[in-house]
Fold:
Amino acid sequence: MCGIVGYVGPRKIVPVILEGLRRLEYRGYDSAGIVYLQDGKVMKHRAAGKLSQLEAIIDDAIVAPSHIGLGHTRWATHGAPTKENAHPHSDCSGNLVVVHNGIIENYHSLRVELQAKGHRFSSETDTEVLAHLIEEYLVVPSPSETDAGSAAPVLTDALVSAVRRALERVEGSYALGVLWAGQPDTLIAVRNHSPLVLGVEDGHGSFLASDIPALLPFTNQVIFLEDLELAILTADTRRFYSLESGAEISKEVKVIEWNAAMAEKGGYRHFMLKEIFEQPQSIINTVSGRIDLETGAVELPEMHLGADDLQKIDRIFLVACGTSWHSALVAKYWIEHWAGIPVEVDIASEFRYRRLLINERVLTVAISQSGETADTLAGIRLAKKLGSKIVTICNVVGSTMTREADGTVYTHAGPEIGVASTKAFTAQLAALFLFTLYLGEQRKTISPEKRRELGQALIGIAQVIETELPRLQEEIRELVDRYYDCRDFLFVGRGLNFPIALEGALKLKEISYIHAEGYAAGELKHGPIALIDKDMPVLALVPQDSVYQKSISNVEEIKARSGRLILLGTQGDTHLRTITDDVISLPHVHEEMNPILYTIPAQLLAYEIAIRRGCDVDQPRNLAKSVTVE
Ligand code: AGP
Structure:
């Protein structure tokens, strides 16, 4: 929901922080700030609005002779997106500063207590409470206690002790960076239920960040903090402690296979467009090496669940949010059809609040691009408590979900920066189809011949998308002038196409702000058809598949009521142009692959309409890429 970044090391601090914030802006962008130490003084710059507003006031600070600091880009939870509420936040002295991602649930009672003790607040945020609470517990050692020989450890101990005592009082989630003028060569990093990753640059330079892209311009050597772990960072040292016991712990440095260019626009106008066009490659990267097209054998070694485990499973729960929930809806059709296992699909924020009939015979699969979505995380923790094995389908190596699950099937889509998920979604579908084939192989419900056929279809869809993307973009662009100023939109589909109708509607609404709804085509006559008139555009997915005739009947019902139709259908289906002029034709592919293929024009339509409306496609209003608060 917010992006935090910090650095201490040989580099000049301001360019490092700004570069890190640029790569985290997709996490939240309603205000931003930076703080650094210069000649022992705390220098702070903050601005409401996007990061560019902060950059506009930095001026000659860009070359400030400082090598330690913190930065923050905000998605407001408590307090309006103003300069006063922008992070970093300070204690009364102004010498202790924090940046925070998460929610301090008991901030109000703590604020009242601290104000009663004389602390003066300058913002409406929950975060500022942390700065004053650490200040309250910070016992600055006397000069005699910090003689020249032992000053650093004593001061650091005092700071760490104050941070630990403060966080003992806190209920809620935090990824926290702390800087104190009293210990000018040290940053403190702490995490609990909000993502926080550390970076190491060839031993000389320590970073903290909410997400990996902020580190990539400088290093791909990362250390993932777990919940309730604290790190003490200096330019050349990194020490780690359990926040609860205070015991020192060791942490492993991991090398991330991503590079900075992968998190750049690469000549595209927007990240979203780049990521739409990356889909053939991300599908290939997700599938390659995991299915033998000769034998039909599927290899998912990181899942850590074999035939014995899977034979015991008599139900599968798929749990996710947003676009990832749509991929779960598609997977339900696939798994039940091909693996013969009953599947329940839950929106994570609902899953958590109903009586769950889950036990060790249930497999819970969490689907998440970020691996940090708070509701989905809470869901798998609940399912685990009830005895279920957990598998996650995830795009971020080392993310919280992948470290808490029993097994993971990674989508190798690379960093997805656009807030509206595109390549991660189709990579999730590819991974879920592989997962289906794996289940069928392990439970002997799909013959090797059929697995070969389906595996070929999956590999082949990437090539089809690669070939069709340029034409689809051109044809969609021709539609836009007739639809960009609509106030409402319906998307309808049947069977495997119904979740894609939902996804198309979500794409359109979240980046163009047009009210759009997805419906099961057969559901129209049970109410929504009342909305149909000459002003109501309806995009219908009508590939020539096993439900084609029924879908065409639905389309005729819409036409009979003067609805404005856009049809996504199969090349050569001449009937479609007898219904409407606005037809986007797609190649005939294996029916199971239609959900992946038909997503592409829906993504392009949302993108082109949003552009035509002058919307900020990569950073839509009110949204954030990873919803790490409940
Ligand atoms: C998708 O376009 C949205 N940005 C959003 O619905 C997203 O899919 C949802 O927040 C889930 O995120 P996750 O996949 O990282 O868990």
Remarks:
- Residues 349 and 375 are 5 Å apart (CA to CA).
- The pocket of 2-deoxy-2-amino glucitol-6-phosphate is lined by residues 321-324, 368-370, 373, 376, 419-421, 510, 626-627 (CB under 6 Å).
